[in-house]
Amino acid sequence: MSEDLGLVGATLADRYELLERIGRGGMGDVYRAHDRELDESIALKVVRDELMRVAGVAERFRAEVKLARRVTHRNVARTFELGRHDRLTFFTMELVDGESLTARLAQGPLAKALAIAIAVALCDALAAAHAVGVIHRDLKPDNVLLARDGRVVLTDFGVAALTSAHDESSSGTPRYMAPEQALGERATPAVDIYALGLVLLEMLTGAPAFVGGIGTVLEAKHDDRALPGLDALDPALAAIIAQATAREPSARWPSAQAMRTALAPAQPAPHAEPAPLLVPTPDDVGLPTVLLTPPRALGEVAHLAHGFHQELVRRLSRRGHLRVLRRTHGAVGGGGALVAVEAIDHASIAITLGGRAETIALNVPLAIDALVEGAELASRLIAAAVGAGPERGAEEPPLPARAREHLWRGQARLRGEDLDRQATLAEFTAAQALAPRDPRVMAGLAMCEVRAAFFASEPRAEVLAAAAAHATAAAAAAPHLAEAQIACGHVRLHQGDATGAAIHFRAAIARAPYLAEAHEWLGRMLLEAGFLVDGMARTTDALEMAPDLEAPRWDLARTFALEDRWDEHDAVIAELAERVGPLRGRFGARLRFAAWRARTDDIVALRTEIDETAGLSHFERAMLVMACDVALGMPWTRVKDAVVAQALGPNAGAGRRRAFTGQIIAEIAGSSGDADTVIAMLDDATRRGLFDRHWLARCRLLDVARARPEFAAISAAVGRRADAVLDALYGDHATRGTAETLLVGAPR
Question: Which tens digits make up the pLDDT trace of 345-368?
């Protein structure tokens, strides 16, 4: 039993407020905590100091967190960050609201159907872990949580090891150890299969199969007698458990998936679904909560409503003793407030106080200065009503009304799918003419210049260099500004430095957890890197904050398409069309979806739409037309040499544009059976920063090249980069995005 360190009420790393101790284990105590950056309830595990002083334990602990982060599945408790505070070492993970399987078994054995359902979920969890080379090695009822939302969650990869590692330690709990594990032999996935067999038996009988110390247990496990209670079970189920717990690893089920199929032959494995992001209730954090629903406005006044809403959120977020949520719905508790903003011929703010019948109404003219003053007044009214503290932190520099209107218009255009990129750039350029050094304007300019560098007919290095200069200047002038960090992230991403980009997107969330665009980019990078559960959860959270965002829905549609989940893909596309009207633009995504689905009629319609659409750069139009024509029957050999030469030439651009071009050409070549070109384009894309592991693993148009040894090497390189992205997003606390981390010029 560990000593109570008296940490309840403390805040670690200026981020994690410890609310209560919820568990104790061999490695240390577990606390329920509030993550101030992401505004979520999480579990935080503090490692016992005497363990950290043992030689090798610190390295093992760091490896534990890095390995556990590689497993993202709804039946696995997500692991987030590793940190140090004073002399304390800790890591954070998903907080699962429920009880342990041990607690449930204290009430007696489980019904057969429930025990099988739990075992099937654990098979899914182990299959996900084994697929990325992680072995749990300590599967037992204590590490199985039964969540109130119905999930079965495997937690505590405290003694996990890579399949390829040569760790000879016999970590684990004796009664659930496989015989070879207890002897100190190298662990393989078979040790998890063995432990799962014992856990399933215990669920059915209500008692563990083995008790006693490691010597007694090891002796019993080498006995040829059947496991206690096995003969009383249904013969088919007993046979499944007997095979799982065979003495020799080679005699056990060959995989968790194979055992799952035996347990539930008629039940297919579920798709990866986003695990719920556990947003704390007001009682969790002990602070008054202000929930701001997305602004309601259409047409010409939309940018004014969004700008006013953004100004109000910023002001409230700078106040002490206040928790600000930006979501479509939620509870605020008795001491909080619900705030709704609507704009038609004026801006109206309705403030509904939690636990009271009264509503405070405020009307503001749709003029820039009036809206800024109205946001300040509304902030003071809300703060006074809920008992918030004074404003703190850096104030944005004053901005002339005309410059602010251009800024708000530009920001609104950046949020949408507007094809007129020159008009967007013109808004920020006009704002810069009126406020040359304003960091918000410079961040917007950087975003526009990144887009220009990506879509330009002839990429020019000076455009991306200008974007880097503007982003760096914005971050240097206002290091607290989330938009500056997002701009820095975009520059890094388009330079081909995905890890550097991830650091800046993470920094943006740290500075403004209410900013939907920061969550949007975190989600996008996680989806591309192949961490679908976390990526989908973060993407849907961004849409909860800002349901008018279009890009996250395209990200979800792409994820569903790569997973062959076409019904869900179609539902997302239908929702997009319902929100924005007939789809326009996004030709690259729409064409790829049609090609992946082999829908010729859709490609014909897109070809016509592309011809009729103005505003496309020569680069976009030429690439799209060529892809359509090849898909519609034009011989690939007719254009192959010219296309490949241009894509690999010195004027093809750099970083993300060149990697993306390589992806498109690889798909076209793959659909034509040209494996050599697939490999050539993938190799170049990988050298340019490709980290899109999900696409590489799932796109069927690449199948023609999968058997090539070069493909395996490319997959390994992309996988390493994807893992590095995850480490940057959920890494050590020392990794922070600052102006100094953005170097103008080539990626590191």
Answer: 899 999 998 877 778 899 999 999
